[in-house]
Amino acid sequence: MLDESHKIPQATTKRLPLYYRFLQNFANAGQKRISSQELSEAMKIDSATIRRDFSHLGALGKKGYGYDVQELLAFFRKTLDQDEATNVALIGVGSLGSAFLKYNFHRNHNTKIILAFDTNSPHEGKKISGIDTYHPDLIEEKIKQYGVEVVILTVPSRSAQEVTDRLAQTDIKGILNFTPVRISVPEHIRVQTIDLSVELQTLIYQIKHD
Fold first, then answer.
1. Is residue 133 domain-shared with residue 172, that is, in the same domain?
2. Which residues form a coiled coil (predicted)?
């Protein structure tokens, strides 16, 4: 875990899973050590940014040697709690939600979708892509029963805040919001919003103005 007494910049925290993924690739290729320049070339991130990120984390290499791949991998595994799976629930099994269930993150990450909710599912539940799926009437009950910490929200925009208000009454710690609505939550819940249309428009703008 990161030392909470030392505030890590948000931009750095977003890159942590990427560092872990690329270090796994180098380790799988049998590489023993790596320089920030090699990571830079592989990840397309400026080497100065990488060195600055690592200095925030305290993961410093040796001058003239670079970084020990296995040591860095162990560091990021601990930092990202890779050995502890986080139970995730999905709310809204439409086209996007179905894709999440089919992929499911625990194959490559420390997250695992174990529960889903959809208005077309019966109260007694059914399996969708091997995941227990229930009617949204049971959100509060089942989230507690399954020990869910994080929710992926892929419901229609009109339902986003209503569902969020119900989630606020549970013990979840975070919401990954795929709706375009800026949902309001109490302080104990962290929200990360991914608006696909905004991301696409940003990409198009960057392409045209590059």
1. yes
2. none
Condensed to tens digits (0 to 9), the pLDDT of residues 67-117 reads 888 888 888 877 777 556 789 999 999 988 998 888 775 555 567 899 999
Residues 32 and 93 in one domain: no
125 in the same domain as 190: yes
**Tokens 């940003």 identify what position?**
202
Supply the range of the domain harboring residue 30: 10-79
Annotated binding residues for NAD(+) = 92-97
Return binding residues: 92-97
What values do phi and psi take at 122, rounded to 5?
-75, 165
Rg (the chain; Cα; Å) = 20
Last residue of a domain, one of 79, 104, 131: 79
b/e per residue, 124-151, with b = 16+ CB within 10 A?
Answer: ebeebeebbbbbbebbeebbeeeebbbb
pLDDT of residue 6: 54
For all residues of the chain together, what is the average pLDDT? Answer: 86
Contacts of 5 (CB under 8 A, 6+ apart): none
